[in-house]
Specification:
This protein is α+β, with helices and mostly antiparallel strands. About 40% of the residues lie in helices and about 25% in strands. The strands form two sheets. Strands 1, 2, 3, 4, 5, 6, 7 and 15 form an eight-stranded mixed beta sheet that branches. This is FemAB-related protein (PEP-CTERM system-associated).
Amino acid sequence: MNAPFAPVRTTVRLADLRDPDERGAIERYVAGHPQGTPFHLPAWIAAVERGTGNKALVLLAERGAGAIIGLLPLNEIHSPIFGRLLASTGFAVDGGLLLSDGEDGTALLAAAESLAQSHSCPTIELRGGPVSDARQGWALRTQSHCGFVRPLATDDDVQLTAIPRKQRAEVRKSLANDFAVTVGTAPEDRAAHYAVYAESVRNLGTPVFPRALFEAVLDGFGDAVDILTVRHEGRPVASVLSLYWRGAVMPYWGGGTWDARRLRANDRMYYELMLHARRRGCDRFDFGRSKTNSGAYHFKRNWGFEPEPLSYAVWTAPGSDTRDADPTSAKHRAQIALWQKLPLPVANRLGPWIARGLG
């Protein structure tokens, strides 16, 4: 008589990111997964840990002899203002559960809940991935943010005419201005980008992220990241740090100075990035996420991008209040207005301490 078939157990454990073999296995799993993103990679969550001090934690679901069947990368976010949470992943627009075909993620979600409670984090936020709102304690958000992706054109002229008429007129005006456009990751590129970005987010009423976060991402992603900067009369007026992933350019942290709007430097920046990305071999422009109906949301629509709702899942521990770190909420409106009035040196000094807890 044949022995009864013993089902292969699924186990969930924390990965050891200090082990290069472990990191390599995770990288291969993400690279081979159709929903894999840069934000699932060890390089991202390790950069967040180095740049902000928010610990990197990766839950692995395995079956048999260590075969990965699911992945949940997390950063443990600490904020004296907004509280504590596990984010998948920290400072990212994507992340969340990554599962092999046929897997339901139940074991990984249960492990994440236990991990959150043991680390005194009353909230888990997953930016993407399959999570059912039928699971107790979890709520799905499908209307709060949208993503924007469209193909790149075949050449420079077609790229310009592919932009809707009103926005194309702004780009044409920017092309008449005397700008110098550079791309790189040298110290001068990094310094120019951070100075522009810090002023840009202050003007929006948002604390600037620590410079160490940008440095860690630049160092961790090698030739899959760069900075494009637009200068006017020698001064940087617009700059964007972009990631490159599977044929897509992802402008991630970008902004402009007060003069950028008058000079239309941001319009020039994004157009030049489209051209640069195509020359790098990209075929898609991923404009990232924006709050639904926000100014950035409508700006991207003006460029011809159609919004696609994103699915986020949030778990709140029993008896805990829902975390509110939404900069558009009524609770934070007064703080934003005050922050916009701060002198830039003061905002740059205080901002990183606050922003490292935003997640």
